[in-house]
Amino acid sequence: MPLVVPGINSNMGDKSEWVNKLMGKKISDGGSDEVNFAKKDLPESHRVLKPGDMKTMDHNPDRLNVHVNEDGTVHDVTYG
Questions:
Q1: Which of the four pLDDT bands, split at 50, 70 and 90, describes residue 16?
Q2: Is there a contact between 72 and 49 (Cβ–Cβ < 8 Å)?
Q3: Which domain of life is it from (predicted)?
């Protein structure tokens, strides 16, 4: 079985690319600008996780997890 390392041999790309695009922004249903990032521009396999959200524990190396603060600002980006 081949080793799958997100950002190296995953089709999702490098984590730092998403960190640069999302950190400090809010995920919105509208368009993207200096303070917002449009949800429609996220990869198909993604989930936005707020503090206290329940989540499945299945590991999907191609799923982008966008972690937001209480106010909706992105503070972390992971794969899994």
A1: confident
A2: no
A3: Eukaryota
Question: Which tokens in the block code for residue 19?
Answer: 């960190």
Task: Calculate ∠ Cα 75-33-53, nearest 5°.
Answer: 30
- E-assigned strands of the chain? 26-28, 36-38, 46-49, 64-68, 74-79
The CATH code that applies to domain 15-79 is 3.30.10.10
Residue 52 structure tokens:
């206290």
| CA 2 – CA 73 distance, rounded (Å) | 35
Q: List the 64-68 sheet strands across, edge first.
A: 46-49, 64-68, 74-79
